[in-house]
Amino acid sequence: MPTLPWTTPNAPRPQTRAMVMASRFEVRSLADVPRFFWKSLAAWRQVRTAPGAVGASLIAQPLKRTFWTLSAWESREALYTFAKTEPHYSIMTSLRSTMDNSTFTFWDVPVEELPITWADAKRRLAEQRQADAAPAEGAGA
Questions:
Q1: Among the listed residues 53, 74, 69, the one whose alpha carbon sits nearest the alpha carbon of residue 102
Q2: Closest CA relative to residue 11, chosen from 78, 80, 81, 74
Q3: In this model, does residue 137 exceed pLDDT 70?
Q4: Which residues contact 132 (CB under 8 A, 6 or more apart)?
Q5: Which of 18, 93, 101, 113 is the most exposed place for a label (fewest CB within 10 A)?
């Protein structure tokens, strides 16, 4: 399945840190895959010109109904500005009804460690998904 390789929209400033975000999305059915894929390509085009974006990659596994994103940003503010800017904002809201499961994780790294590997991102997402699924401490007590 297609992997859009790491691209660097804006060169990071040396000796700074980048905010990294990885996500994993599952859509409800195979019928939702084409729409999600098409919309994810629009978001991909946007991130390639987004202020503050210092790296991004995408994996689509349509037969598994799963999509993965990985991006690095100059700051958390740059990431949040991107998320609230069109077309990304409308894409997020329009796809909510097609979503089954979503996992997000964030961390920061020295820019010299970019690009982030998919192995690292997937490990962190698995850890986050496990943490999200853990019962709340003290629940039911």
A1: 69
A2: 74
A3: no
A4: 103
A5: 93
